[in-house]
Design goal:
Elements lengths: L5 E4 H11 L4 E4 L7 H8 L4 E3 L3 H13 L4 E6 L2 H12 L8 E7 L13 H7 L3 E2 L4 H18 L3 E6 H5 L1 E4 L30 H4 L3 H25 L2 E4 L13 E2 L2 E2 L15 H12 L4 H5 L6 E5 L3 H8 L4 E5 L1 E3 L3 H8 L4 E5 L5 H8 L18 H9 L22 H10 L3 E3 L24 H12 L2 H4 L2 E6 H17 L5 E8 L28 H8 L3 E6 L7 H9 L3 E8 L6 H21 L4
Parallel strand pairs: 2-3, 2-4, 4-5, 5-7, 6-7, 12-13, 12-15, 16-17, 17-18, 18-20, 19-20
Antiparallel strand pairs: 1-8, 6-14, 9-13, 10-11
Helix pairs in contact: 1-2, 1-6, 3-4, 12-15, 17-19
């Protein structure tokens, strides 16, 4: 590490590490809390691009890694569901370049439809998983994920959570001499970039049954070797007791790779703060709380914690012994067992599902988990204190915030006013337009996952009585349509309901909810430079939709409500594309279009005269 100190979010730290580690390609789909990673990587000078969805992003990443390039694929937790088809087979293959898959989980659902715990994916797919506690480890573990991936030729999941993604902590990056240039030191290229070569290895990359069966055996052998490495060299810290004052906050670097001192020889450093120390002093001063204070003294209480929960645990119980490790799958079970034998009570502090505590108990290591109520939402210091104390009493109600709403002047408002006034049954989708479910519109009846609006609407059309079926409408955004709506449209023309169906694409020219990112329907790349633009109307016509209508959302001379009512009375499949730029993105879009026009003029002026 250098003396340079940067204050970075976890997302920015991952992007910086990717740049320093020589990642050749970053691809993904925007989704909070992961979005900023690729935006920052692009701003720093890396090659970053948005994919239509997470499955395509991972497939592109696999191809890049097959070609020997270090590659980063980013997505939020629910995005890994979309990419799972590729993930579960990719782990069977041999990838030459380091392939890091970012899974940004969202405990508490700050901006998600569920709070699934993607640690399950690592175990189900057989993918090594690293979990940083802060921005420094987000930087370090991005490097480590690439190194593990290249050593064992396996994709590695780097699991972040909302607090790690967005909280800013100090990062000391690697020195310039340790950073990896995009140039290949062994074969200096003439054009200044690495000349990656394809290495043919059919048994390791063509997963027909004859090759996949031995590949599965190889995968389990890789995981066994990685587990052994984790026991001997994996990133691990122990705090408290004799471990105190023996080292720093983070795993050190050894030979350019992350390593750690033997267990019991790294310290808590400055993670515990005055709040936790004051709590201990107060306990000593109050006899009626002495028993609670005693349980925090080593060697009685031992805590195992990973991710951001490790920081909460340090503050909640600064006197307790704590074991924290970064490679959370495969687990360093021997190290954990040795730690467990040194304490009387072993408590696992983890956000989300009881994944770690279940694994330990299944391995014969007696461990205590948190009560069920703490499975929901994010952990914090106060909640961890309650877990340690065994306090399962009702928690204080959080202060009520201002409910979200569609922006004033939002083009979606007219659509949901019409759907409300027509008393439509609305199958909705994922995006800022999901806010149409709230008053004063209350015009959305279902919302499951990206792209589900079309299939769910069709399902209702097939089985409801005709009068109700005619009221069903599917509403989907432009970015979501590209992500997962194309197959739903194919379903509509392939299996049309007797009453037909109406799909509304709300085209506001951006991926608005995650911060106004581009997508294949905008005609602009991640860096806002011009590229080919998908033609939604042409796609609908080519797929066989019977009625395709372009609607200018800003044209108030034509009643959208009347158009919808007329279409619902017809027995035909229909696609309405309601187009009006997002009120927040419109000024930027005008600038992008002006810049693109200027570039076209410059290129035309440079052409030779005929």
């Amino acid at each position: 590490m250098t003396e340079e100190r940067l204050l970075l979010s976890g997302d920015d730290a991952v992007a910086l590490a990717a740049l320093h580690a020589g990642v050749r390609l970053g691809t993904g789909y925007p989704g909070t809390p992961s979005t900023e990673i690729l935006e920052t990587f692009d701003r720093l000078g890396g090659h970053a691009q948005w994919a239509p969805n997470e499955k395509v992003a991972l497939e592109v990443g696999i191809g890049s890694a097959f070609a020997g390039a270090r590659t980063l694929v980013t997505m939020k937790h629910v995005g890994l569901n979309v990419a799972a088809d590729a993930l579960f087979t990719a782990t069977y293959t041999d990838v030459d370049g380091g392939l890091v898959i970012i899974s940004a989980d969202d405990p508490g659902m700050a901006s998600s439809q569920n709070e699934q715990d993607n640690r399950h994916f690592a175990r189900a797919a057989g993918a090594p998983m690293l979990e940083p506690i802060d921005s420094q480890q987000a930087y370090d573990y991005t490097w480590l994920a690439l190194e593990i991936g290249e050593r064992w030729k396996i994709p590695v999941i780097l699991r972040l959570t909302t607090r790690v993604c967005h909280a800013k902590t100090v990062v000391r990056p690697r020195g310039v001499e340790q950073r990896r240039s995009l140039e290949d030191p062994e074969t200096p290229p003439e054009n200044g970039k690495t000349e990656h070569r394809f290495r043919r290895d059919i048994p390791a990359r063509v997963m027909i049954p004859a090759f996949a069966k031995p590949a599965h055996h190889r995968l389990r052998q890789k995981l066994a070797e990685i587990a052994a490495w984790n026991e001997a060299e994996g990133p691990m810290q122990e705090y408290g007791s004799e471990a105190r004052d023996q080292g720093g906050d983070h795993p050190g670097e050894q030979g350019g790779r992350l390593g750690r001192a033997p267990i019991g020889h790294q310290a808590a450093g400055a993670i515990g703060n005055q709040t936790g120390l004051d709590a201990g002093k107060q306990a000593e001063a109050q006899p009626d709380k002495q028993a609670a204070a005693d349980v925090l003294d080593p060697p009685k209480l031992g805590i195992i914690a990973t991710g951001v929960a490790a920081i909460h645990a340090r503050e909640a119980a600064p006197k307790a012994r704590q074991l924290t490790f970064g490679l959370t799958y495969p687990l360093p079970l021997a190290r954990i067992r040795a730690f467990a034998n040194q304490v009387e009570r072993l408590l696992v502090i983890e956000e989300g599902d009881p994944v770690l505590v279940d694994d330990l108990n299944a391995a014969g290591i007696k461990a205590e988990g948190k009560p069920m109520r703490y499975r929901f939402g994010e952990l914090n210091v106060e909640r961890v204190r309650r877990i340690i104390a065994g306090d399962d009493s009702p928690e204080p109600e959080p202060a009520k915030g201002k409910p979200p709403e569609l922006c004033q002047g939002c083009s979606h408002r007219t659509v949901f006013e019409a759907l409300r006034d027509l008393n439509c049954i609305v199958a909705g989708d994922i995006g800022c337009y999901t806010l149409g479910v709230l008053p004063p519109f209350s015009a959305m009846d279902t919302c499951v996952c990206m792209g589900a609006s079309i299939g769910v609407g069709l399902g209702m059309r097939h089985v409801l009585p005709e009068a109700e079926a005619r009221r069903v409408v599917s509403v989907i955004g432009d970015s979501t349509f590209v992500h997962s709506g194309l197959t739903g449209l194919a379903e509509m023309v392939y299996n049309p309901p007797p009453t037909g169906h109406l799909v509304l694409i709300l085209d506001n020219g951006t991926t608005a909810m995650t911060g106004q990112q581009e997508h294949p329907g905008t005609g602009r790349s991640l860096d806002h430079s011009p590229t080919h633009q998908l033609d939604f109307a042409g796609i609908g016509q080519a797929m066989g939709v019977q009625s395709v209508v372009l609607v200018d959302g800003s044209d108030k001379s034509v009643s959208l409500e009347e158009r919808i009512a007329t279409q619902l009375a017809r027995n035909e499949t229909a696609l309405f594309i309601v187009r009006q730029p997002c009120v927040l993105a419109a000024p930027k879009i005008r600038l992008y279009e002006k810049a693109a026009a200027g570039e076209r003029e410059r290129q035309c002026a440079a052409l030779p005269e005929i």
